[in-house]
C-alpha cells in the first residue's frame, strides 16, 4: 500500500496541509514541535482508529475548532481509494471511502499502517494497559471486525461494573443478584472471543518478533511473548501472573473464574476477570523485559514488536505492504542499530521517517526529504534547508 497524498484541515497544529508522498522512503525533517509527528499520527489513525500519543480524540482537533478532517489517497497496486475522516471533539466520527459514507470502523479495511515512536517504550516498560492497547490495535488491523467485538466488550464491561457498584452500595449479596447472570453471559461471549484472538496473535508474532529483534539488535536474546490470563486464576493487572491448571474452553474458564470471584467483585465494585485484566508478558534471555532488560534491550524489543507487526500484516495482506512509519526513532539509536534498522525496512513499499536532523537518518532512506515548520509543509528539504540553529530542541 502507498499513501500518495495526505490532506489535513484543523488537525493538531495544522489549519490546512497538503503532503505528497512517494513510494519507498520519505523523510519529514523539522525541529521538535513543528508538526512532523502530527502528519504521521494522522496517517496511522486511519489504520488503527486511535492515536499513539493520546487516548481521546479531542486533542487531535485544532484549538477553537469542533472537528478535524483527514483525507488520504491510497494506492493498492493499480487501484486507488480515497479515505476521508471527520474527527469530532464530541460525538461519533464520520467517514467516507471514495465518496461513499461508511462507519469509521470500516477504515482499517483499506489502510494498513504500522507506526513506531519513542512512546512505544511504554509497551515494554509501562503498565499492562499499554500492552493490551498494542495488541488490540494490531488485532483491529489484522481482523477489522474485532473493532466491534472490543467496543461491545468494553460497553458490556462498563454496564456490568455499574451493576456491581450499585450492589455494593445497597449491600446486595451475590446470590441475590440474578441480573448479573445476564451480563456474565455477554461478558463471557465477547471476552472469550477477544482472549482467543489475542492468544493467536501472540503465537503468530513469536517468529517475526525473534527475527526482527535479531535484525535490529544484532544478537539473538530469545525474545518471547505470552499472555497471562485472569481467567486462569491470577490477576495480571495487579501483578499476579500465576496461571493455574485446568482444561476446558476459554468460555468455561471464564465462567468458572467469574463464579469464584463474584463475592470479591461485589465487595470491590469491580469486574476482576476478563481480557481487561490480562497482560502480555514480554521476555528476553528468559527474563521479563520489564524490570530486567537494559535500556538498549527494551528499545530493541519495542521496535521489534512493531517490525514484527508489519511483517505479520505484510504476510497476510492481499493489498501489499503496510506503510511503515518510524517517528523520531533514529536519534535514539547508535550507529550500528541505525544501519541495521535501515536494512530491515529498506524493502517495504513505503516508509515514512520523521527526524529533527536529516543526518540522523541513514543516507539510503533520505531519497525524498521534506521540511516541516510551524504546521506548514514547506516542500523538499533541498529547497528549504534547516539552518544549524533550527535543529535545536
TrEMBL record:
Domain AAA+ ATPase: 22-384
Keywords on record: ATP-binding, Cytoplasm, DNA damage, DNA repair, DNA replication, DNA-binding, Nucleotide-binding, SOS response
NCBIfam families (UniProt xref): recf
Subcellular location: Cytoplasm
Gene this protein is translated from: recF
GO molecular function: ATP binding; single-stranded DNA binding
Function: The RecF protein is involved in DNA metabolism; it is required for DNA replication and normal SOS inducibility. RecF binds preferentially to single-stranded, linear DNA. It also seems to bind ATP.
Name assigned to this protein: DNA replication and repair protein RecF
Binding site for ATP: 30-37
CDD domains tied to this protein: ABC_RecF (cd03242)
GO biological process: DNA replication; DNA synthesis involved in DNA repair; double-strand break repair; SOS response
GO CC field: cytoplasm
Family designation: Belongs to the RecF family.
Major localization listed first in the record, in broad terms: cytoplasm
Amino acid at each position: 500500500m502507498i499513501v500518495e497524498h495526505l490532506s489535513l484541515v484543523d488537525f493538531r497544529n495544522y489549519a490546512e496541509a497538503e503532503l505528497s508522498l512517494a513510494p519507498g522512503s520519505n523523510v519529514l525533517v523539522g525541529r521538535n514541535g513543528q508538526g512532523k509527528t502530527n502528519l504521521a499520527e494522522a496517517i496511522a489513525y486511519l489504520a488503527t482508529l486511535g492515536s499513539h500519543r493520546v487516548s481521546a480524540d479531542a486533542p487531535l482537533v485544532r484549538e477553537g475548532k469542533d472537528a478535524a478532517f483527514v483525507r488520504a489517497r491510497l494506492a493498492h497496486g493499480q487501484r486507488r481509494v480515497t479515505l476521508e475522516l471527520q474527527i469530532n471533539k464530541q460525538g461519533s466520527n464520520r467517514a467516507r471511502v471514495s465518496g461513499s459514507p461508511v462507519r469509521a470502523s470500516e477504515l482499517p479495511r483499506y489502510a494498513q499502517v504500522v507506526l513506531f515512536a519513542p512512546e512505544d517504550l511504554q509497551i515494554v516498560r509501562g503498565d499492562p494497559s499499554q500492552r493490551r492497547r498494542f495488541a488490540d490495535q494490531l488485532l483491529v488491523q489484522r481482523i477489522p471486525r474485532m473493532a466491534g467485538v472490543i467496543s461491545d466488550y468494553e460497553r458490556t464491561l462498563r454496564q456490568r461494573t455499574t451493576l456491581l457498584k450499585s450492589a455494593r452500595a445497597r449491600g446486595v449479596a451475590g446470590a441475590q443478584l440474578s441480573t448479573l447472570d445476564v451480563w456474565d453471559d455477554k461478558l463471557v461471549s465477547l471476552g472469550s472471543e477477544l482472549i482467543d484472538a489475542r492468544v493467536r496473535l501472540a503465537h503468530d508474532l513469536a517468529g517475526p518478533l525473534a527475527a526482527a529483534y535479531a535484525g535490529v539488535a544484532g544478537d539473538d536474546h530469545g525474545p518471547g511473548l505470552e499472555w497471562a490470563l485472569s481467567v486462569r486464576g491470577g490477576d495480571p493487572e495487579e501483578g499476579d501472573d500465576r496461571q493455574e491448571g485446568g482444561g476446558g474452553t476459554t468460555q468455561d474458564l471464564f465462567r468458572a473464574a467469574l463464579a469464584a470471584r463474584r463475592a470479591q467483585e461485589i465487595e470491590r465494585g469491580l469486574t476482576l476477570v476478563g481480557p481487561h485484566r490480562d497482560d502480555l508478558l514480554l521476555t528476553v534471555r528468559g527474563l521479563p523485559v520489564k524490570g530486567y532488560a537494559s535500556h538498549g534491550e527494551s528499545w530493541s524489543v519495542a521496535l521489534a514488536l512493531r517490525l514484527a507487526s508489519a511483517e505479520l500484516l505484510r504476510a497476510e495482506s492481499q493489498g501489499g505492504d503496510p506503510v511503515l512509519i518510524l517517528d523520531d526513532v533514529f536519534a535514539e539509536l547508535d550507529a550500528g542499530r541505525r544501519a541495521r534498522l535501515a536494512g530491515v525496512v529498506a524493502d517495504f513499499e513505503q516508509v515514512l521517517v520523521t527526524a529533527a536532523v536529516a543526518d540522523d537518518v541513514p543516507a539510503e532512506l533520505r531519497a525524498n526529504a521534506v521540511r516541516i515548520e510551524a504546521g506548514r509543509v514547506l516542500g523538499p528539504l533541498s529547497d528549504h534547508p534547516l539552518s544549524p540553529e533550527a535543529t535545536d530542541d
